[in-house]
Structures are given as structure tokens and as C-alpha cells.
Design a protein that fits this description.
Blueprint (H helix, E strand, L loop, with lengths): L2 E8 L5 E6 L2 E6 L8 E4 L4 E4 L1 E6 L12 H10 L2 E6 L10 H14 L3 E4 L15 H6 L6 E2 L9 H13 L3 E4 L12 E2 L2 H6 L3 E2 L1 H18 L3 E3 L5 H12 L4 E5 L1 H5 L21 H12 L5 E2 L8 H4 L16 H10 L6 H15 L17 E11 L18 E11 L2 E5 L2 E2 L2
Parallel strand pairs: 1-4, 1-5, 6-7, 7-8, 9-10, 10-13, 11-12, 13-14, 14-15
Antiparallel strand pairs: 1-2, 2-3, 5-16, 16-17, 17-18, 18-19
Helix pairs in contact: 1-2, 4-6, 6-7, 7-9
Bound molecules: zinc ion.
Length: about 425
Amino acid sequence: MSYLIKGSQPYGGDAADILIKDGRIAAIGDSLSSTGAEVVDAAGLIALSGLVDLHTHLREPGREDAETVETGSRAAALGGFTAVHAMANTDPVADTAGVVEQVWRLGQEAGLVDVVPVGAVTVGLAGERLAELGAMADSAARVRVFSDDGHCVSDPALMRRALEYVKALDGVVAQHAEEPRLTVGAQMHEGDRSARLGLAGWPAAAEEAIIARDVLLAGHVGARLHVCHVSTAGSVELLRWAKARGVQVTAEVTPHHLLLTDACAESYDPVFKVNPPLRTDDDVQALRLGLADGTIDAVATDHAPHAVEDKESEWAQARPGMLGLEQALSVVVEAMVETGLLDWQGVADRMSVRPAVIGRLEGHGRPLAPGEPANLLLFDPATRVTVDPAALASRSRNSPYAGRELPGRVIATFLRGVPTVLDGKAVR
Ligand SMILES: [Zn+2]
């Protein structure tokens, strides 16, 4: 099957046609024609490389009531993603070749995005001994990103050994930076507001202390470190310092940390409870500037679906985490494009190119150019959509953007030349 995309604007530039054949971009230019090709009218739509998420929770195996590989894949495709990294905190934990291969196969069967399993760093995420990192790397799932996300690898000696192992695998340790001794019982960002609301605080220092330690360890070992969901201004400063010293560190920020603040907790609505917590206006500003100047490499969703009984309860009992895949691009447009901090090329760099490089993914994060795999999305920047959680493809409903109007909408997504989304709807 071939497709002729008429009149889209690659990276927001001049209108051009894109011809897709045999899974690849065959040509980009003016007034292209091709007999037999299905024509997609894309006038006014921005064309971008398919997005790559370094941080998605798909909940399968174990919590299929909250999300499955298939429903999460559908949400991802609707968000313009062509590849997502599936975090390891499933049940059982993805800490063996068997489990990562199972997740990888489920992704292949769903066929909506490339599901790339993340392997656990430690057995059972328990932080006591290293998992079978080499076996996961050698498996059919080709694991390159290792993370205990949800938990911090807090033992410095174990973290050092993990860095040494993944270096040999050309992999990366993705650290959930949270010194657990400083966040016992934590419910929200520690500051004036947490004191006033009577909720136990999660201090910025708990994140920054681990990042400071880990960039020193990564520099010492000469290994790659990736920092998950950076949330504080101090973390951005530490990353800037480490990069200037030549440490091989990369970092991600979530859409919600680019848009929302701890003021959301005033409502006591647990949909806004997340780990790390929503921070202050100053933190949001520092994160936006860090993403704009490249100190923060990537946007990653930390899409965290939760079943109603785990989320719609008292704030203190609710699980942390929020949906992210379907609104990620629109949130980035509001926080970064409409504020003039990033252009469309910059969006593609932070949401596609760099995450693919960090994850060592072949065939993703490639430029829109002849000969490249046809992984791309078409985005309508002119429309505005009010988010209705009931209309989302995710099996869960915990969207922090419910009722909020966001800019733009993904109209189509192509995975290796095959549409996964057309006319704003998933093809299956
Ligand atoms: Zn995390």
C-alpha cells in the first residue's frame, strides 16, 4: 500500500507532498503524484517524525484492569507516537528475558506502535541485587534501557555496578531520582502549600541529592545515565553542571511538569497526585528553559494509568500517577511552542530524535527525508480540543487535563508506512 500525503508542512515549514511506499518515505516535494496511492489531504497540517516515549507504564502483565499493551498502544498512536518504552514495574516485574519478551510480543501483536520493554535494574525492583541485564539485552526485546522506575536505585554501590554493567551493553540506567529516606509518607511538593494543606512534603532535595550522586558515579565509571522525570529547578542546574563537565547524562521532563504546579493540590483531587510531585511556578519555568536549551534532552510522558479504585479515593490513599500519551504533544505545544521556546524542529528533536538515540532505537527518530522509514504524524495546530477522559483510548480515566482546552490534535500517525491513526481515529 502506498500513500500520498498532500500539502502537509514538514516541521512547520513550506507545504510539500510526502509519498510513502513500501514502508519508507519515497519522495518529498511539490505536486507529487503516484498512481494507485491513497491520497491523504493534509493541507494546514504539520508533519513531524513519529514520537518516541522513553517512559510509559502499560501495566501488562498484572494490572490489565488499568491498561493493556494494546490499549496503551492505541493511546500512544493517537498521541502521535510510533515507539514507546514500557516500564518494568509490572506484575511480574520485567526483570528477566522471559517477561521482557512477553511484553515485546504483545506489542508486536497489537501492531500500533513499537513497544520497547525497559528491563528492571534489580530483581523484583527490590534494590538488593542486579537483575539479568545481559540476558534481557540479548533477548528478542533487545533491551537497552534499564530502570527500577517507581523506585530509586538508592544503594550507591549497587547503582555503580549497574552503570558498569550497562556500559558494556551500550545501555543506559534510567534513574527514578528519589532519596527514599527523605520522602517517607510524602504526598506533594514540600513547601508553603504542603504545610498549609497539611500534606507531608516531598522535598526537591530528595531528587537533587540522587542526581548529584549519580552524575558523579556516571562520570567516574564512564557510563551513560538517564534521569527520569526531572521536576525541580535545582535538578536542571545540576544537569547543566554535569554536562559541562562531560558526563554522559541525559534527562527527560514530563508534559505535566511543564504545565501544572502544586497549586493543583489545593483541590485535593487525587488526579493531581504524582511522583515526583507537581512543583512550583519557578520550577516549571526552569524546566521549560532547560528543555529549550537542551539541558533536558527529551519529553517523556510517564503515562501512568490507574484503575478507579486505586485513584478516586482520599488524596493520601490514592496511587501517584496520571495519563499522558494522548495529550503529550498538545501540552508541549502549549508550554513550549506557543510560548516561543521551541519551534517544530525543536519539538521533533525533544520528542522523537533524542529519545530514540537515548534508547538506541533503530528506525525511529529519523528525519522526514526520502529513504527513511515512514514513521510520522500529522498534527492540526489550528484546532483546540477540550479533554474528555471518557473519550480516551486508555483503559483508565486519570487525566489531569479533564475539562481543559488544549491546542491541536493528531490527525494521522504512520508506523513504517502503515496508518495506525487516520482522521483522528485509531484504525483498530
Ligand atoms: Zn518514576
